[in-house]
Design a protein that fits this description.
- α19 (about 415-430) packs across α20 (about 435-445).
- The protein folds into four domains: about 5-135, 3-Layer(aba) Sandwich (Rossmann fold); about 140-320, Rossmann fold; about 325-400, Helicase, Ruva Protein, domain 3 (Orthogonal Bundle), CATH 1.10.8; about 415-460, Arc Repressor Mutant, subunit A (Orthogonal Bundle), CATH 1.10.10.
- The protein is elongated, with a radius of gyration of 28 Å.
- The protein has helices at about 5-10, 20-35, 45-55, 70-80, 95-105, 115-135, 160-170, 185-195, 215-225, 240-245, 260-270, 295-300, 310-315, 330-345, 355-365, 370-385, 395-400, 400-405, 415-430, 435-445, 445-455, and strands at about 15-20, 40, 60-65, 85-90, 110, 140-145, 150-155, 175-180, 205-210, 225, 235-240, 250, 275, 285, 290-295, 315-320, 350-355, 390.
- α4 links the parallel β3 (about 60-65) and β4 (about 85-90).
- With about 450 residues, it is α/β, with parallel strands linked by helices.
- Mean pLDDT is about 85; it is low at about 1-10 and about 410-415.
- It contains 21 helices and 18 strands.
């Protein structure tokens, strides 16, 4: 999964075990020595604190009940000294209350006695994976460089790896590409990746959002117009197709265009020529066309709302960008990427994302996809007071998910994600006095997606 070893992966882990039961200590000694870790084993809480004064430990296994100092007290002191040390509580008193208390204080996880060696190995491996993400181990991502700018498409999931392979195959060609996927999945970023990995990368990359243009001005925006061709046409204007000559033209949300404009776009693709509004002469253009939509174009074709010939002309190479809920293994790599990004942008130094927050991020359905996740992390970086992102810096509807994960609420009172989303949309609408455009921006979705959700949840 990872492209290279980090400094963390290249060295042995330092592990501390503190437990007053001799059989537990012996079991850890056999396991850790067999697996090749550096380790220290002590029999009470005070000795554990003395040990961390001398050595930096990556992982500490801490018994909940010990003489002199109990595990919770030692945990508090460890977290005051080192936010990066992961603590796992060992307990024979495996109640939800104990686990929740320990995790809220910063413990990574807890295990109950008796346990098998594989239980310990799984916990260690999960912590290794987390630390690799935090230390910036390079996953196989896709970088897009243009001028002084650089974008990164994050995705360790098999689905995203397949998309990277397809981009590398498609980019050098002039084939049209239709990118489909829900709002917020990053369709424009995929289009940029295709262009800036193509032979046209030194030429223009122009984007037109088909959902934001007024129908009467659409033709002029795409194809240009000549002076005097309509009221307000005080000068000849070059359209987007001309401006993108020898480069790439990206039509975002192409499902919003009328049938008459569709016919002219089809001609521009097939004949490589356009006609400005009010002109008589055709203008030759050499443009590669990419398009994107969050609507099922096949359905629109069946309904007579989208030209079948244009659909097939656009979808020579179809790329489906999966929703974030369909590739949950990408959620944490994306979250850590955005943490790094907004630490730099906001001049913050937040070191980590708490285990409780990670569990919430993985449990949430992400209707706004990657865009919504980025907004959540940016918000947290701005308002977080600790050295790691905690649940307190998450939006309310995400904080409420913690209740379902920790068992605070009885099962019959736990609400569905749909209910939480409906309530959150209502809160945002109230906060914006019903301004749908502003509400959509806050939610990290486009207006059409918001309208669909208002209809789905019957929100007036």
């Amino acid at each position: 999964m990872y492209g290279k070893e980090s400094e963390f992966m290249a060295r042995k882990l330092n592990i501390l075990v503190a437990d007053d039961e001799e059989s537990i200590r012996l079991g850890f000694e056999q396991l850790l020595s067999r697996d090749g870790y550096n380790f220290t084993i002590v029999d009470d809480g005070e000795k554990a604190l003395q040990a961390i004064e001398k050595t930096d430990y990556d992982i500490i296994f801490l018994d909940f009940k010990m003489p002199l100092l109990d595990g919770i007290e030692v945990l508090k002191q460890i977290k005051q000294r080192s936010i990066k040390t992961e603590v796992v509580i060992i307990t024979a008193y495996g109640t939800i209350k104990t686990a929740v208390e320990a995790i809220k204080l910063g413990a990574y996880d807890y295990i109950t006695k008796p346990f098998l060696p594989d239980t310990i190995r799984k916990v260690i491996n999960k912590i290794i994976e987390k630390k690799n993400l935090l230390s910036g181990v390079s996953t196989r991502n896709l970088e897009i460089e243009y001028g002084d700018n650089k974008d990164i498409i994050i995705g360790v999931s098999p689905k995203m790896q397949e998309i990277y392979e397809l981009i590398h195959k498609v980019a050098p060609t002039d084939s049209t590409v239709l990118i489909t996927g829900e709002s917020g999945t990053g369709k424009e970023l995929i289009a940029k990746a295709i262009h800036y990995n193509s032979l046209r990368k030194e030429k223009p990359f122009l984007t037109v959002d088909c959902g934001s243009l007024v129908e009467t001005l659409f033709e002029s925006e795409l194809f240009g117009h000549v002076k005097g061709s309509f009221t307000g046409a005080i000068a000849t204007k070059h359209g987007s197709f001309e401006l993108a000559h020898q480069g790439t033209f990206f039509l975002d949300e192409i499902s919003n265009i009328s049938l008459s404009i569709q016919a002219k776009i089809l001609r521009a693709i097939q004949e490589k020529e356009i006609k400005r509004v009010g002109a008589t002469d055709m203008v030759k253009v050499d443009v590669r066309v990419l398009a994107a939509t969050n609507i099922d174009l096949r359905k629109l074709v069946d309904e007579g709302k989208f030209r079948e010939d244009l659909f097939y002309r656009l979808s020579v190479i179809p790329i489906y960008l999966p929703a974030l809920r369909e590739r949950k293994e990408d959620i944490l790599p994306l979250a850590f990427h955005f943490l790094k990004k907004y630490n730099m942008k906001r001049k913050r130094k937040i070191e980590a994302i708490s285990e409780a927050v990670q569990k919430i991020l993985l449990a949430y359905n992400w209707p706004g996809n990657v865009r919504e996740l980025e907004n959540v992390i940016e918000r947290a970086v701005v308002i977080e007071d600790m050295l790691e992102i905690t649940t307190a810096s998450l939006p309310t509807h995400l904080q409420e998910i913690e209740n379902t994960l920790t068992g605070k609420e009885v099962q019959e009172n736990i609400r569905s994600l749909d209910e939480l989303e409906r309530e959150h949309i209502q809160k945002v609408l109230r906060a914006t006095n019903g301004n749908r455009s502003k509400s959509a921006r806050i939610l990290g979705i486009d207006r059409k997606t918001l309208y669909d959700k208002l209809k789905r949840y019957q929100i007036e």
